From TrEMBL:
Residues 286-374 form the Beta-ketoacyl-[acyl-carrier-protein] synthase III C-terminal domain. PANTHER family: 3-OXOACYL-[ACYL-CARRIER-PROTEIN] SYNTHASE 3 (PTHR34069), BETA-KETOACYL-[ACYL-CARRIER-PROTEIN] SYNTHASE III (PTHR34069:SF2). The keyword NAD does not apply. Keywords: Acyltransferase, Transferase. The keyword DNA repair does not apply. GO terms for molecular function: 3-oxoacyl-[acyl-carrier-protein] synthase activity. The lineage of its organism: Bacteria, Pseudomonadati, Pseudomonadota, Gammaproteobacteria, Oceanospirillales. This is 3-oxoacyl-(Acyl carrier protein) synthase. It comes from Reinekea blandensis MED297. GO terms for biological process: fatty acid biosynthetic process; secondary metabolite biosynthetic process. Residues 153-220 form the Beta-ketoacyl-[acyl-carrier-protein] synthase III N-terminal domain. InterPro entries: ACP_syn_III_C, ACP_syn_III_N, Thiolase-like.
Length: 378
């Protein structure tokens, strides 16, 4: 009978951009833009021909989302009322791309944490909400920069890009097509935000995370996490959408049109995704015969603090503590697929042998991905 190797997460890494933006800063530029628009269109607004632009509010943002500030890859341009998007000049074809640079920084931190060299890695998956070009893959650029042999590829699953890529890595190690895999999530999402739209201008921040997934036989880290199970599900929904893509040019679609930027029906997302995510994790744990009450930590996707409070309540039948379900979105905002990986990276060192935790993402698609992991303390 074939025996499959045990698969572990042996290291994780985080790269944080040098700039951050507060709610107040974002609100100021949105409100100034709204005043300008409303003033310029006063007569048409008065006649009811044009809808006035609504203003934003920092206190609303913090209460509705839990976000106070977010890191951004480039601050220049976002707060300029004549631009309202980051100013990130194109790089020459012989220079490293921005996303590969972020990915390499996070990957180096994960390799250090796993006590591994790049030469130990067999495959690289770059998985995030957007890649800055279609080809050559960012993963192959990272592979080249780090001197990794084997293969690399990019994949996109919006907010579940990290957990879905971890599942791919798990399957690769388990089947023997690779012994060590680097999973990297360079989330450079702020260029796709509509900074004039009060419903979404505050939501996202940039960051990069990485994890090393490998065969337990060869682990070099003192503390690592055995993957007990992975689970992924998708269900089509238009409630979170961006239409920008490679056909935009052929369809004469303006890259600045709101439909081509991130947009969502936030209320519907909240109502539909919370029960799906809670049920997803509960049924996964039940199938493993693990009682939710014995889970030490829930490293949940970081989209909205109220979503996390509600999901944790559904899982535990009571309000979870900060230790049980840590929140990072107050400082980071929603970082697409990286949120749950940031939470894991910052909050796992206190785990002892046998402690169990769950990493779970939920978002656009809809897509939900989760891993149940058990600490091994060597
Ligand atoms: N300031 C002041 N008032 C506001 C603002 C604002 N900025 N925004 C809305 N309001 C008003 C509304 O107009 C409304 O007023 P009224 O009651 O008069 O109609 C009132 O405040 C309440 O509005 P909502 O009901 O919309 O407010 P909520 O309490 O629902 O909070 C949230 C809005 C925070 C957006 C919330 O609905 C939410 O977080 N929902 C879930 C969102 C979510 O998880 N989305 C996942 C997206 S992430 C993802 O999948 C990755 C995609 C890929 C990355 C893309 C990167 C660009």
């Amino acid at each position: 009978m074939t025996s499959f190797p045990s698969v572990v997460i042996s290291g994780s890494g985080l790269w944080t951009p040098p700039y951050s933006i507060t709610n107040e800063e974002l609100v100021n530029v949105l409100n100034e833009n709204a005043d300008r628009f409303n003033h310029a269109n006063a007569d048409a607004i008065e006649r009811g021909e044009v809808a006035p632009m609504a203003k934003s509010d920092a206190a609303f943002i913090e209460k509705a989302s839990g976000i106070r500030e977010r890191y951004v890859y480039e601050k220049d341009g976002i707060l300029d009322i004549n631009r309202m998007r980051p100013n990130i000049p194109a790089r020459a074809e012989n220079e490293m791309s921005q996303q590969a640079e972020m990915a390499v920084a996070a990957a180096r931190a994960a390799l250090d944490d796993a006590n591994r060299n790049a030469t130990d890695i067999d495959a690289v998956i770059v998985s995030c909400a957007y890649t800055q070009r279609a080809y050559p893959a960012i993963a192959i650029e990272v592979q080249e920069a780090l001197g990794i042999e084997g293969f690399g590829f990019d994949m996109l699953v919006a907010c579940s890009a990290a957990t879905f890529a971890l599942q791919r890595a798990y399957e690769m190690v388990r089947s023997g097509t690779a012994r060590s895999v680097l999973v990297i999530n360079p989330e450079l999402v702020t260029p796709q935000l509509n900074y004039a739209d009060r419903d979404s201008h505050f939501i996202f921040g940039d960051v990069a995370t990485a994890m090393v997934v490998e065969n337990e036989d060869q682990v070099a880290a003192k503390q690592y996490f055995r993957v007990l199970d992975t689970k992924a599900v998708t269900k089509y929904s238009n409630n979170i959408r961006s239409n920008f893509g490679h056909l935009s040019r052929a369809a004469d679609i303006d890259a600045f049109a709101p439909a081509n930027l991130f947009h969502q029906e936030g209320r519907k997302v909240f109502k539909e995704v919370c029960p799906m995510a809670a049920e997803h994790m509960s049924s996964q744990l039940a199938a493993l015969d693990i009682d939710n009450q014995t889970v030490k930590r829930w490293w949940l996707h970081q989209a909205n603090i109220n979503m996390n409070i509600l999901i944790a309540k559904k899982l535990l039948g009571r309000t979870a503590t900060e230790e049980e379900a840590p929140i990072v979105l107050d400082r980071f905002g929603n970082t697409a697929s990286a949120g749950s990986i940031i939470a894991f990276t910052l909050y796992h060192k206190d785990f002892a042998n046998g402690d169990i935790g769950v990493i779970c993402s939920f978002g656009a698609g809809y897509s939900i991905g989760s891993l149940v992991i058990e600490c091994v303390q060597g």
